[in-house]
Amino acid sequence: MTVVFSKENLKLSKDLQTLTGENVMLCYQCKKCTLGCPSAYAMRMKPHELMRATQFGLAEEIYWSGAIWICLSCETCNTRCPQDINILRVIDGLREMSKESEYYNPYPAIPALHRIFMALVERFGKVYELGLALLINLRMLTPFKDIDMASPMLLKGKLKPLPHFSHGAKELRKVMARIRAMEKDRFA
Q1: What pLDDT, on the 0 to 100 scale, is given for residue 103?
Q2: Which domains occur in the chain, in start order?
Q3: Can you say whether residue 84 is alpha, beta or left, with left for phi > 0 and alpha for psi between -120 and 50 degrees?
Q4: Is the pLDDT of residue 2 over 60?
Q5: How high is the pLDDT of residue 39?
Q6: pLDDT on residue 77
Q7: What is the pTM of this model?
Q8: How confident is residue 14, by pLDDT bands cut at 50, 70 and 90?
Q9: Residue ranges in 21-158 assigned as alpha helix (H)
Q10: CB 165 within 8 A of CB 124
Q11: Is 64 exposed, middle or buried, given 0-12, 13-18 or 19+ CB atoms closer than 10 A?
Q12: With contact defined as beta carbons under 8 Å apart, do 1 and 22 qualify?
């Protein structure tokens, strides 16, 4: 069986390569990424299927599956890939490209949660767990959800009431600002 790639099909993989520097066409479907993925059980489209769909330019199926939003960003797929494809970078690229996409997202709250997480990381240089929980609960219109778990965690010192800044927070903000500027230039 031969597979013929048309220019339309290759557009997604070329756009991703431009955005991320990763060549998804190197994937030969060994499935090692999926076998190591801790969230594959919850995905409609497994990591190796996501790579194949990207090779075939099936953007609608990728976005509809919601797999890019279920990914935990643990990088297990990256460490297992024999082709050294940074699959997480591909998934992050698909997340960024989904902003301009007209396709349905079955998990509409997750992109907002991703933005909240990234905003906290940018601000403090690392995640501020209590702030993340509060902002997510406010976003989901459930401000008192998990309140029963907060006081034991605070008493045991597992949750800090005030955020701590990472030593590299200032440098991280500069890097993120440069990335935004580069993206703005590229999409302008």
Answers
A1: 66
A2: 7-98 (1.10.1060.10), 109-187 (no CATH)
A3: left
A4: no
A5: 92
A6: 93
A7: 0.65
A8: very high
A9: 32-36, 47-55, 59-65, 67-70, 76-80, 87-98, 109-124, 129-139, 147-155
A10: yes
A11: middle
A12: no
What distance in Å separates the CA atoms of residue 162 and residue 72, rounded to the nearest whole number?
25
CB atoms within 10 A of CB 185: 8
Tokens linked to 140: 């989901």
Rounded (to 5) percent helix, strand, coil in the chain? 60, 0, 40
Helices (H) and strands (E) in the chain, counts: 11, 0
Contact 33, 39 (CB under 8 A): no
| Number of alpha carbons in the 13 Å side-chain half-sphere of residue 49 | 14
- Beta carbons of 47 and 77 less than 8 angstroms apart: yes
Residue with tokens 């219109």, as numbered in its chain? 141
DSSP letter at 24 equals G
CB atoms < 10 A from the CB of 52, how many?
Answer: 16
The encoded tokens of residue 3 equal: 């597979």
81 near 104, Cβ under 8 Å? no
Token digits of residue 146: 């998990």
Q: What is the pLDDT of residue 35?
A: 95
